[in-house]
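Retro notes
What went well: the complex prediction finally ran end to end.
Inputs used:
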Amino acid sequence: MIVGADAADDRAILTQSATLYASYGLSRVYYSAFSPIPDASKALPLVRPPLVREHRLYQADWLLRFYGFEVGEIAGKGMLDLEVDPKLAWALENRAAFPVDVNRAPKEMLLRVPGFGTRTVQRLLAARRHRTLRYEDLAAMGAVMKHAKPFIVAAGWSPRGLTDAAALRARFAPPPEQLSLL
Amino acid sequence: MTCQVVLPVVGTVPAWREQARALARAGVPAEAVVWRVGDGEADLFAGAAPVATRSGRDLRLPRGAVETLETALCHSDPERFARAYATVLRLTDGAVRWGDRSDPAIRRILAQAKAVARDIHKMHAFVRFREVPSGRQRRAFAAWFEPDHPIVEAAAPFFARRFGDMDWLIGTPGLTARFIGGALTFAETAPGARPPEDATEELWRTYYASIFNPARLMVQAMQSEMPKKYWRNLPEASLIPSLIRQAPMRAAAMQAAAPTEPPARRAMVARAMTAREAAMPETGTLGAARAEAAACTRCPLHGPATQTVFGEGPADAALMLVGEQPGDREDLAGRPFVGPAGDVLDAALAEAGIDRGGVYLTNAVKHFKFAPRGRRRLHQHPDAGEVEACRWWLDLERRLVRPRLIVAMGATALAALSGSGHDLLRRRGSVEAAPDGTPVFVTVHPSYILRLPDEDLRAAERARFGADLAAAARLLAAARG
C-alpha cells in the first residue's frame, strides 16, 4: 500500500490491512511511503511524507499479526505516534495492566510488554518451566531491557514507582527540539 | 597433562566431529585438549597421552544442537573448538540444557552461529564473477571474495547448485573453491593475481546507476545491508559516492518540474464507465430483489463482508425459515445455511420430513458481521440498528414469497419479525403473529445447539429442534387441510 499519497489516516490503512488478512487470507502487506517521480499527476503531492510513518505502520502491522492486538487499540486516535513505537504507546496509555510478572503471566500478556518480541517470549516460556527467571536472564534472551524495565517484575527486580511515573514517556521519546525562528 | 589435536585446513568441521567422538569415548575431559588448525594429518595422541579422568561415553545431543554447533565452528574465533567440545560434554552429561541462554558458552555459540549465517548470506549476495577464457565446452568464471570467517566450504554448495552448468572458482584469502566439470573441490589459496576486468561489469554498473531512486535515499539502511567492508570487491561500489552526492539535486529538480496533464481520452473513458448500466431483471420478482440487495449500502456491514447473502428457495414456498445472519462459510459461498449451523438444520429438516428445496431459507441480516482476529473472522451479533435497516429486505421477501407459516430461528429473527427478541426460550414453541398477520413459529437457532458445552445436552437439543420443526410442519399441514 502506498502511504501518504492521499488523506487516508493510519487507522483506515490498518483497518484495510486487518480486513485483507482476515477475509482474504493475505500473507503479508507491504507499506511504502509515497515518493514523487518525474512527471507525476497533478493530483499527487509533490513532497514525500516522513519515512518514520512507514516504519510505524510496519510495527503496527506486526502487532496485528503476531502480538494479538486490534486496530482500535493501537490506532485509536487516527494517526500513529511518530515519536514512540505503537506497542510502547499502548503500554504507556494502559499502565493499569502493568507491571507483569514474567514468571507467572500468560503468553498474551507477555507479548504486550514493550521490549519483548515473539522469540523472546518463546524462550521465556521455555526457560521458566525449568527455573525461576531473574532480571539478568531476560537480557540474555533478547529482551530490550531499557523498554521493558518499567513494565515487568522478575526475581531480583521490581520497577517500584517507575510504572506509574508521570515522566515515563519522556524517557523514551526523543528530546524536544528548539525550532529556529529565523 | 594436555594433548594436542591438529585439525586439517580443508574439512575442519567433519574432522572435529570425529575427534570429539573419539575423545569423548576415551573419556578425555575438555581441559586436557588443545585444538589447532594446521597442516598435516590430525594425530589424536600427539604430545602427551590423554589422561581419562571421566568415564568414556558416547555423545548424545539434541537434534537442533548439532547443526548450530557445526555452523558456529565455521567462525574465526580460535577458542571455538575447545568451547564446542566442552559444551557437547556438558550437554551429554545433562549439566546444561541446549538453548539455555543464561549459560555464557551456549550464548557465545548461538551468537557465533548467527554471525556465520549472516556471513554466508553476504557471501551468497556479494560474490561477483568475471568471465575468463575457457578451453572447454563450458564457460568459465572466477571471483575473489574476502569473508570475515572461514565459511568457503559451507557457502560453496549454493553456487554449485546455481551455476551447475559452468566452471567457476571462488578465491578467498583462506581457501579456494573450484567447480570443474561438476566436481566441487577445496584447496588452500596460492598467492596469485586477481581475475581480469570484465566487459559485463560496465553493463552491470550502468544498470545499477539507472535503478537508483534519488528520492528514496537511505544511506544508513543501505550500509547495514551492504556493509562497507565488502565494497572493495564490488564493481558497483565505485558509483555509490557520486550517486549519493547527486541525489538531493535530482530529487529537487523532479519537484520543480511541472507535471503533465492526463490525455483527454482518459476523461472520456471514465465517463463511459460510470454511465454504463447493468442489465436489470424486471422489478417485482425475487431475482430483481436479489440484484438490488447485492448493491445495498443501508448499514455499514456491506463494507467488510464479501457479498450479500440473499434468501434461497422457491418463490411460491409455503414455509419460510428465518435465521440471524450469514456465517463465515455462507459469506464466502453466497448461500444461506451452508456451514456447520446449516448441517444441523439439514439434519433436523430431514428428521421432520421437510424438503429443503421446497422451503424458503433466509436471514434477518444479509451481511456477515465479524471482527478480524489475525487470520480468523470472529462472528458478532448484529445490533438493533442493523436489524432495523435490513428488515426492509426481509419484509420485501415476505411480500414476494407470501409464506403461510414463518419459522423464526433465534432471538434476532424473532426481533425482526415481531419487534422483540426477549425471552426466546419462554416463547419457544408458541405461534405469534407478524405485523401483516402471518403466523410465526418460535424456535432456537441451530448455532445455539452447536455452542452448548455438554455432548448429551447437544444431542437432546438436536432432537428437540427436530421436534420443533416437525410441529411447524404439522401446523402448516393443518392450516392447509
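What we learned: Chain A touches chain B at residues 18-19, 21-23, 25, 33, 35-42, 44, 46-48, 51, 64-65, 68, 70, 123, 126-127, 130, 136-137, 140-142 (CB under 8 Å).
What to try next: split runs per interface for comparison.
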